[in-house]
Amino acid sequence: MKRIYQEYADHGVADSASTLSYYFVFSLFPFLFFLTTLAAYIPHVRASMDPLLARARTLLPAEAMTLVETHLHGLVARPRPRLLTLGLLAAVYSASRGVDGVRKALNCAYDVKESRPLWKTELLAFGMTVGGGLLVLVGISVLITGGDAGFWLARHLHIADAFVLVLRWIRWPLTAGVITLGAALSYYVLPDVKQEFRFITPGSVIGTLVWFLASWGFSSYVAHFGSYNVTYGSIGGVIVLMTWFYITGFILLMGGEVNALIEAWASSGKRRGARAPGESAPPPEERPSAMPVGAADTASAAGRSRGGNATAKRQTMEGTQHR
User: What domain range includes position 139?
Assistant: First the structure.
């Protein structure tokens, strides 16, 4: 726990989460625009918007959900199935900025500098955004189609009531599974390191559970104690949405920090700052941790930065004398 706190302080996770909350709000409405445009090409998706909103309504605070629901209903009421133009590409690009922010923060967690060319990182962010939209729409469509088929079969077997009860409860594990999958894909694809894909990782599982608890706790606080509309007026819903996105980004990044820390400790894992198992790490002064993001916040982080640079200089001098 002490080491995790050091990683949190050195890498400025709270500051990165603040940045991500802006990126996520900036990305949300272009992503909804992309989602509704894409929905015209997948069967039964128009009917899946209500179940999608019902799932989101149990997770988002009421003020934030009202903001999202109003905008989404406006988009669905005026579908644009032919808008495969620069406008849609601009919407997807805007939505991909949140994904790109996560990539930068996860690189910091693994203490590596980005080595991939710009076109590749942009294509990665673009692909993750489109893939995420497809995953959401196809998943909801399969759930609706499977639920209708299952209810038809259960009605003929005279177990309709039991089927409805099971379906009501099984949606929570399915929702948790989709969130865990999204986190696992982010931890696997976005950082500039080589690793095997694992659906179950400490960061994805713990992060999903903590995120459920945090979302429920924040929603309860907003509903019973928060007075955002009184304090912020008409933008109260936006502030609530940004705060919820901040919590989400913070938990996602801390999950990546936990994964990177555990892998650095494991005998078969990557060394700190290395991109692949068995690969030698670059000198400390060439890594992002040479000057931690949080070095300006705490004396201990600044001390670790000075210590890392001093160690690197000492190693360089010893190598020169040896030669």
Answer: 2-258
Within a domain: 275? no
pLDDT tens by residue, 215-259: 888 888 887 776 777 677 777 888 888 888 899 889 999 998 898
The full length of the chain comes to: 323
Q: How many domains is the chain partitioned into structurally?
A: 1
Q: Give a yes or no: residue 293 inside a domain.
A: no
Please tell me what DSSP assigns to residue 114.
Answer: -
What is d(CA 167, CA 92) in angstroms, rounded to the nearest whole number? 33
**Residue type present at position 47:** A
Output the pTM of the full model: 0.75
Question: Residue 136 in contact with residue 52, Cβ under 8 Å?
Answer: yes
The single residue listed with the structure tokens 């039991």 is: 162
Query: What is the pLDDT, as a whole number, of residue 159?
Result: 62
Q: Return the beta strands (E) in the chain as ranges.
A: none
**Taking a C-beta distance cutoff of 8 angstroms, is the pair 244, 64 a contact?**
yes
CA atoms within 13 A on the CB side of 157: 11
- First-to-last CA distance in the chain? 42
Does residue 187 lie within any of the structural domains? yes
How far is 25 from 70, CA to CA, in rounded Å? 15
Residue 268 included in any domain: no
CA–CA dist 264, 202 (Å, integer): 14
